[in-house]
Amino acid sequence: MPCKQPWRDFSVPHWLQAASEGLPIKSSLTTPYTTYTTTGPTPAPFHEVVVPISHYGVQKYGQVQKRFSAKMEHVTVVDAYTLSPSGKRYPVSEKKIFTRTLPVAQNAPEFSDAKTTTMVFPHVAVGDELVADWKIDFLKPYFPNAISLSHGVPYFLQADNVHIIVHAPTSMALHWAGSDGYAVTRTVAKGVQTITATLHQPIAQPIQINAVDFHQVSPTFILSTFPNWQAIGDAYWKYAEPAEAVTPEIKALADKITEGKTGEAAVQALYDWTVHHIRWVGVETGLSGYKPYPAAKTLSQRYGDCKAAAALLVALLHAKGTPPNRYC
């Protein structure tokens, strides 16, 4: 399961503002301890400390948000408070912790179960510590008998001390990697393996404007039961293959679209029909973020997301006996 990060929505306009007003955060301490068993992860507690070091940091991080899928996860705030340099503690009132449905994209109404829990910190000023203890209850896995975790720290933020600690039975085959400063160790005791990833990033790098997405060049730790990309593809295929079933309606439509056409012309006709007749609507509730809708359903309702449209196109190709990858 992916770890949530307070800077996930740090978009280009925010880069520009931070570049003019100063880096937003001096340090962050994140210590998620996650225990995985053969039935899945147990509730994962997090301890997080963020210190704003500019006016922009106060504005941006005075409210901390944790986004989650309501059908797959549940977020609980255990404790949250502002700690001033003098040692005075200002607790976040329960009335200032909100869990609400996120506003979804205009073209995806009612097709997302994304929610956010927001903590509004009081008395926030430059140099204060914003402390939050929270946990995630994982309701069910996205892929059966498989887990994945990733955590990154943007290169333009200072990170005094980041720890990620994962406990799992030694019988669970885990694969991991750390980049750009992450040090990873593994210990074993009494049938339990402990993987610890540690990052010290005391010096933030200058923000690169008009560069590649910062996730691609920032320190990152990943852990998974998937040994390689082929295994990930195989897991997805178990969701995708049933969605590409050919029904009589799909077969009749494929024949009609390709009437008088063969080869690449027929493939192009099927592609053009799908693009012009299936409108895009985000479908991201629960497993729908990974599992495409059946092609027959997409055809009947004339909308779906990218996975759904792709499944319908593949079904149309199958209906004509054309291998989907022949013209890729």
Would you mind describing this structure in some detail?
The chain has 328 residues and is an alpha+beta fold. The protein has 2 domains: 12-227, Immunoglobulin-like; 240-319, C8orf32 fold (Roll), CATH 3.10.620. Helix content is 24%, strand content 34%. The chain is built from 7 helices and 18 strands. The longest helix has 15 residues, at 229-243. The two termini are 32 Å apart. Residues 251-323 form the Transglutaminase-like domain.
Largest pleated sheet: 10 strands, mixed
Task: Please name the CATH architecture of the largest domain.
Answer: Sandwich
The ordered string of helix (H) and strand (E) elements is HEEEEHEEEEEEEEEEEEHHHEHEH
Helix content: 10-25%
Number of helices: 7
* The number of domains: 2
Distance between the termini: 32 Å
Structural class: alpha+beta
CATH class of the largest domain: Mainly Beta
- What is the strand tally? 18
- Which range does the strand content fall in? 25-35%
InterPro entries: DUF3857, Papain-like_cys_pep_sf, Transglutaminase-like
Organism: Acidithiobacillus ferriphilus
Domain Transglutaminase-like: 251-323
Pfam families: DUF3857, Transglut_core
